[in-house]
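Below is just one:
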Amino acid sequence: MFHEKERKIKTILKDESNNKCFDCNNSKPEYISLNNACFICKNCFKRHQKFPLNISKTTKNNLKSLTLKELQYLYFGGNKKLLEFMKYEYPNLINLDH
């Protein structure tokens, strides 16, 4: 299990889109929205904390402390894939181009 977690962490970190905040594009996001499988900065984290947990469940960006299930959300998701989903599902939203 340890090796599987390490492999997933390496893959998640290789994706350059995960090195920026999904919401505002600031570099080095410090937090994760687990159920959205995206990375967010400290300022956006404050906004996300006001959302109900079914909208955004946030945690500190410490990949090694996440469960395998939580890592899988990020492994199969991440900022790039969430952006693709949002563009497909909500094409009329503005500011989706990072």
About this structure: The beta strands are 31-33, 38-40, 58-60. Residues 37 and 73 are 6 Å apart (CA to CA).
